[in-house]
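Sharing a chain and its predicted structure for anyone who wants a worked example. Both blocks are below, sequence first, tokens second.
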Amino acid sequence: MAELLAIYNAEAGSADDDVRAAVIETLRGGADLVEAPAGEKDLDEMLDAHPGRDVVVLGGDGSLHVVVATLHRRGELDARTVGLVPLGTGNDFARGLGIPLDPQVAARIVLAGRPHPLDLLVDDEGGIVVNVVHLGVGAEASEQAKPLKPRLGRLAYMVGGLLAGVRSPGWRLRVTVDGRQVAGESPVLMLGVGNGVTIGGGTPLTPGARPDDGMVDVVVALTTGPLDRLAYALRLRRGSHPELRRVITDRGREVAVEGEPVPVNADGELIGRTARRRWTVKPAAWRMFT
């Protein structure tokens, strides 16, 4: 019987207690399960107490990010397979990977126990990205949406996007992919580096990305003019923005950015502003039940 450690943050995301309790009951029916209602501060303590157990994240992209980052820091990504039951607001990584958003179906996938190797983005400051990191107007949209999430849920992302789209002037940034400069002459409205596909609860920022191909997809939007912004916003929701003349796309194994301090969002979490950052793909760095 599989030995699992179910990690969740009772204060995070949009899951209610009844849904989580039903998922835990399902997992207990097919595995030796230990519950770990752990916040970021006591996650190490829970992992120390239960060595060798595979980890099941009951939560969204932020919770998954914290768990994978902790396992990476501890050097345990190769020792523990990660499962995901999407109970967050956006659940973008689950969407892109094809994990069902029905919690019961997702729990049964974990119990089926089929590990799949996945890539990981690691930056030059020791941070990681599981799904997508984006800089510029999208990160500002997340900042605007954050106080609205408790009342509006997924709609908060749309409202935040509208507010940021009107206010953001663009940033002077130099972007390179595997050493090739792909942007640097014009202001950048948004830069996306995708291991996964969607952000903000289903918006396909890097629609062709795959988290298991050893590469990341890069999207650079130079659409700072009023009409260009509108076209980008409309196309972004449908995933057809790469067709726009002022949108640059590329793929590679290392992406670097430098220039004006720009807001950054990694896996749905704001991490401040940066004037210089580099991300490198680590192929097959961890495993997930899919």
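Comments welcome. The mean pLDDT is 90.
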